[in-house]
């Protein structure tokens, strides 16, 4: 049984980690940090965890994180990069759910995130935690950069097309929608029910922080730069991401076979039958990416529909999946959960 610490346990990804790890057969959460809530029982803040944990929030200094086997950072951007080194030096493995180690070019990261990187030397060591691409490297990693939610849905949707050399790489389009939980648990006017309900809007059209991460991942797979237009939208739902992806075909392939073959052995990617239209509610609460591929009117445009739960496969679930790989557990340990419906 490994000892787990969670830094930043009061946010949505933190409580999702707690939910998933509560029944994990090989992991026990021993420390959850929150300066503001130190001394409060975790299940007092999140009653859904009553009977599953008796952990009390503690300050990072009092949490004994250095005695853990693995520490998850479920914190805002900029926290893990300042604290990861001490934990790594103590022999603790680190999984960062924020963006501190996702982008290999430190100068580009600093430009997009508006701060100086505190541990640039760790960026080169960090393994990008998309198991469907980097499984072998994750198994041997001590520092994993957990992918963002939009990047997970988009990369899994485009990956088979790029690897099969079926599409032009200069004009990819990712038209994506997210539920409001993607903005986190912080108090913010734009996330209020009266503001986000009964409405639908695009944002970050001029440039979103997930753009360089997606572009980097796709370019690594392609072996050359890709041209990508990424437009995120906010939808009046709590959980879920729906990515509608467009590309131009450059050779005739059996698209259904391309996707089914690529993901035939992937536990957490479900390629739906031809003609399907995946719904976000079909993955709510589960660590799944469900994908359908279309070729409208038999033309040269391919449309991929990719859906995930942004808090699970897009965050905490994928982080647990990475932990399982790092410690040699079954990849689906603690993740055999059926999505919720309705």
From TrEMBL:
Q: Which GO terms describe its biological process?
A: L-arginine biosynthetic process
SMART domains noted in UniProt: Semialdhyde_dh (SM00859)
Q: Which residues form the active site?
A: 149
Is Lipid metabolism included in the keywords of this UniProt record? Answer: no
Semialdehyde dehydrogenase NAD-binding domain ranges (all copies): 3-141
Task: Report what the protein is called.
Answer: N-acetyl-gamma-glutamyl-phosphate reductase
Predominant location of this chain? cytoplasm
An annotated GO cellular component:
cytoplasm
Question: What protein family does this chain belong to?
Answer: Belongs to the NAGSA dehydrogenase family. Type 1 subfamily.
Q: Which reaction does it catalyse?
A: N-acetyl-L-glutamate 5-semialdehyde + phosphate + NADP(+) = N-acetyl-L-glutamyl 5-phosphate + NADPH + H(+)
Checking SUPFAM superfamilies in the record gives:
Glyceraldehyde-3-phosphate dehydrogenase-like, C-terminal domain (SSF55347), NAD(P)-binding Rossmann-fold domains (SSF51735)
A Pfam family reported for this protein in Swiss-Prot or TrEMBL: Semialdhyde_dh
* CDD domains tied to this protein: AGPR_1_C (cd23934), AGPR_1_N (cd17895)
Q: Which keywords, in A-to-Z order, does the entry hold?
A: Amino-acid biosynthesis, Arginine biosynthesis, Cytoplasm, NADP, Oxidoreductase
């Amino acid at each position: 049984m490994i000892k787990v610490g969670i830094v930043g346990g009061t946010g949505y990804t933190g409580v999702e980690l707690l939910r998933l790890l509560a029944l994990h057969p090989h992991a026990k959460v021993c420390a959850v940090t929150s300066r503001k809530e130190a001394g409060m029982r975790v299940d007092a803040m999140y009653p859904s965890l009553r009977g599953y944990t008796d952990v009390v929030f503690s300050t990072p200094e009092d949490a004994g994180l250095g005695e853990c086997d693995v520490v998850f950072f479920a914190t805002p951007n900029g926290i893990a990069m300042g604290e990861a080194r001490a934990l790594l030096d103590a022999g603790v493995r680190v999984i960062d759910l924020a963006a501190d180690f996702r982008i290999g070019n430190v100068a580009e990261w600093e430009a997009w995130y508006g701060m100086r990187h505190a541990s640039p030397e760790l960026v080169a060591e960090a393994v990008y935690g998309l198991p469907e691409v980097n499984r072998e490297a994750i198994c041997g990693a001590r520092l994993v950069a957990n992918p963002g939610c939009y990047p997970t849905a988009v990369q899994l949707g485009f990956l088979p097309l790029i690897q099969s050399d079926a599409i032009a790489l200069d004009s990819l389009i990712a038209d994506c929608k997210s539920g409001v939980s993607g903005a986190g648990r912080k108090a913010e006017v734009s996330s209020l029910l009266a503001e986000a309900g009964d409405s639908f809007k695009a944002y970050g059209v001029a440039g979103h922080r997930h753009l360089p991460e997606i572009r980097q991942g796709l370019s690594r797979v392609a072996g050359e730069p890709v041209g990508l237009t990424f437009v995120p939208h906010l939808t009046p739902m709590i959980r879920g991401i729906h990515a509608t992806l467009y590309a131009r075909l450059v050779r005739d392939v059996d698209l259904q076979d391309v996707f089914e073959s690529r993901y035939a052995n992937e536990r957490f990617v479900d390629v739906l039958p031809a003609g399907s239209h995946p719904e976000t509610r079909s993955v709510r609460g589960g660590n799944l990416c469900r994908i359908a591929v279309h070729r409208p009117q038999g033309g040269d445009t391919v449309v991929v529909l990719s859906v995930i739960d942004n808090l699970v496969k897009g965050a905490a679930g994928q982080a647990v999946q990475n932990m399982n790989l790092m410690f040699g557990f079954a990849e689906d340990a603690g993740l055999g959960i059926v999505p919720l419906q309705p």
